[in-house]
Amino acid sequence: MKVMLIEDESLAMDELRHLMKPYEDKHEIVGFDNGEDALAHALRWVPDIVISDIRMPGLDGLEVIRRLIEQYPRLQAVMLSGYNDFEYARSALKLGAKEYLLKPVPAPELYAAMDRMVEAARREEKKSRQERNWTLSMKVRGLNGAGEEAEGRQEPIGDWIMISVLLDNWNSPIIWPQNETSAVMVAEWLRTEIHPGADCFDMDEHLRMILIPAVETDRESGIRQKANRIHDFIRRSANVVHTAYRLKTSRESMKETYERCLQLLESQVRLGESTFMPVLGRSVAVQPFWDGARRIEQHVRDAEYAKMQMELRRLLDVLRREGITLKQSSVLLSDLFYALKFKFSDMQSELEAVDADSIYDYLKTCQGDEMVLALLTERMASLMADSEHVLPNPKQIIPPLLDYIQQHYGESVQLKDFAAKYHVSIGYLSKLFKSETGDHFSDYLIRVRMNKAQELLDTGYKKITEIGKLVGYEDPKHFSQTFKRWIGVTPQQYKRNEQ
Known about the structure:
By secondary structure, this protein is α/β, with parallel strands linked by helices. It has helices at residues 10-19, 35-45, 61-71, 86-95, 107-141, 183-193, 220-235, 254-266, 287-301, 305-321, 326-343, 356-363, 369-386, 398-408, 415-421, 426-437, 441-458, 464-470, 476-487, 491-498; strands at residues 2-6, 28-32, 49-53, 76-81, 99-102, 160-167, 199-202, 207-213, 241-248, 275-276.
């Protein structure tokens, strides 16, 4: 905050300066011994808070406050007076002063008043910033206060550099309000490092706009250098940002420049990596994508789920490596779904062919490849389930299932869990299991458990109840009945026979 002290008596000013020391670290404080100099400085410096004596020679405190509040309605003013006079207080408050204190001011009273003024100034600053951001965003969108087309009215004078900065993705969970670098902080940095007339404001939770007055010496290379410097500054606090810029001249409205910036962003945004105004018209190699698509098709036909998912990851790596944008990716993935629907038409597949716009809307919500992989995996797995009559390679499913049973027979082992894992129906997996082992799944599991129970009994394990639990039976009666049905005798009889 900028705090101005006005006091014509030197001793009183010294005392006031001394009392204000606790605020010097966080606030910029200046002092004047007359109203004329204070007013002249304030018109350039724009204070947030003014603490002024009322009675001064020349321009008194009341007149200074009147003129300043007339110029800056949000100003917070505190009046000081050595006279306990109601008329002074009433005049000061009528002019817009927020506090009236009698001299000599006790430190607690001054600090309490100062804290109230700081808080009020912050509220006013926030309100002013919100109003300004709203006004600027309306101008950029080409709208007036009523939300209608402004038709070029109230356009900023002169040429401007417009820079659009997108955080992460258009509709991802990562938003500017959660970022440590606010638009206010960026604006302060811009005014110090780039141009005193620069401004920064958020159009929404993902899109941040920057306006910089263009100077006659600005050329394309110079503008790009400024935009790149801003891009690097914002990237310090954000993992992924996308930056595009355009020079707004008198031949183009703010709305037209803004829309062009959005088009530029759409032509460059990629998942998971920052982008800065790439060269347009760059050719993209899509052959590696379609090579991968053919391999995915074969893996689906062979019901090789693990290989299919691995190939999907490679497909996404191709999109990233070739610098393929979200917009281009949506077209490629849409074409892929259409191609697969045609390829698997003989299987009466229920795979939906999705248009590029729908895929693009989904991609704009993603933070990285994992969400895209989830979409592709789900669709390929459903296609794989639809094509069950094409037998997958049993080596991809049955051996791991048998190994799992051998390792976890004492736990709850259910066929449906493996069906979900390999994205096939329970009925299909059951038939595949029977064709490979000669047993139904449940019979095979019981056989393994009973064999393990016999081994424990053979080694002298004495507690029948614990043996049942070790091989997956919490109910001793159920264990004993199952053991007798498979072995021919109860566990107790088997144990006596072995002895």
